[in-house]
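Good day; I would like, with your permission, to put a structural problem before you. A protein sequence and the structure tokens that stand for its backbone fold form the material at issue. The record follows directly beneath this note:
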Amino acid sequence: MPKKHTYVLGLNTYDHDVSACLLRDGVIAFAIAKERITRAKHASGFYKEVIDYCLEAEGITLDDVDLVVRNCYILPVPEMEDRLVYFDAPGFLPEFERGDAAKHPLYRLQSNKVATISHHLAHAYSAFAVSPFEDGVVMIVDGVGSYQSDVMEPYPSTDTATHLARESESYYKFSGTSLECLKKVWMEPDRGFLSDEFYNMPGLGAVYSRASTYIFGDWNKCGELMGLAPYGRRNQVKHLVELTDGKLDVPHWTADFKEPFVFDGSSWEKSPSMRHWEDLAWRMQDDTENVLLARARWLRETTGAKNLCMAGGVALNCVANGRVAREAGFNNVWIQPAAGDDGIAIGCAYYGWLEILKNRRDFVMDHSYVGKRYSDQEVAIELQKFVVRIQVDAVKSGNVCRDTAKLLADQRVIGWFQDRSEFGPRALGNRSLIADPRRPEMKDILNSRVKHRQAFRPFAPIVLAERMKDVFEGDEDSPFMLIAKPVRPEWRDRIPAIVHVDGTARVQTVREQTNPMLYRLLKEFEALTGVPVLINTSFNIKGEPIVETPQDAVNCFLTTGVDHLVIHDTIVSKAAMHKVVAPVLNVYADVRNLVASTAQPA
């Protein structure tokens, strides 16, 4: 029997945000990040789980896949896997995964069915290949990319670097399936304590991560740094990055920066260094915006392009993105919703589809709902488990959007679980916590009951696309919650829970054709309140990935202060027995976790 479809599998492997993307005839069939499956934030290691997820969702086996394309920014995947054979690197391949890796058919496979590509090339394909534009330019800026010696695409001979330099920025132009590199910005290696050279590398994303580490003790808290920046005072800290005649200058930090966050059990929020951290965050954000804006203007002026595509971890900076969209002069800006390294899987897959298999571009990623569907039966099974059933009341709704809108208008916090999960770091309305933005205290309610985040961090709004310009300034669309917009002055007192201290909000526009359930919910809420906006934050607690399965959603609902769980057409509320059962289960969970953390291997 003839084969029905052509399948290409893209993989981001080994380091943070391991992920997979499966194409069916050039269309994204399924994509998933490992963290959603294992429940470990930014999960690294082997890639068996993400492959199995995509193949099982499609109902095929690895034998049905025509091509596999992979990336690991540390080293090319074949070299990485050879080294892992003889080198114990638990951050990249922990001991408990070594057995699965050794038995897996892709591990150390040498085959014309498997290809490896370099890092910024994969980011570039993740952006332009699924954009709505036939031609344009691409901006890739991230923390660290491939070594110069491993970069695959030709680039200008004037952009010289040593073999051990790393990609920091890459700029391209494209037309159809053709991609040409216009500029590479490299980071030469720098000295450091053992393996911390990255934090001293002279790159825009690297220094942003350095500032994140300085303020929060974690290189991956860049979103928090962006949220803290508006609290800082202007020009209290010297420039951390400067651009002069197109050349990036990243000065070495000195002993002037002598107040790093050091975890000693005390409260971060009450630190005497807070004023200094706020000022440094302002400087880091302002420098970043100015560099990105200058680069984008250079791209437009050099090429005359009307369309800009963006990816790489720095493209998750929605405040900078907003300035680029409004001020750089492009007619259109499109940002990959999985702009970080989870999106590398998309880029790998499309490199295979377009460059290796020589197909045409005919897919536009107008939404990111590419997880697998969970059936009503799977939901029912989860709700019928004894330990769940005795704690909840579950009622089918004949009009779930209208009934949920009424609960929201009554100031209830809703866990909203619908259809396929989003790919990328933003909850875009299928795995979301939803709330009413009209009360300023709703931000504190969400933080105290569920999120347990720092108080300064803002919550994002979702808005009906046709009402966006009424509530927010600027014409640019923001379907993936990747552009910050000023809230119109006349709306700031009407929706105070989503207005940040600088008067902006990280907007997500919602259209009926891409998310009909969320659109109907907004319409029902608008009919009740006159407000076409809701709070939308990720369905998880601090430190955990966004929920993926019905079980994840029920667990989060029962262990937090979420008032109701709306899962498909069922509204789940906490029964009286929840107050009795939940503390017992929490103690059991604490004991179980303690035993697991102290258990000795057999």
In short: The CA atoms of residues 192 and 200 lie 7 Å apart. The first strand starts at residue 7 and ends at 12.
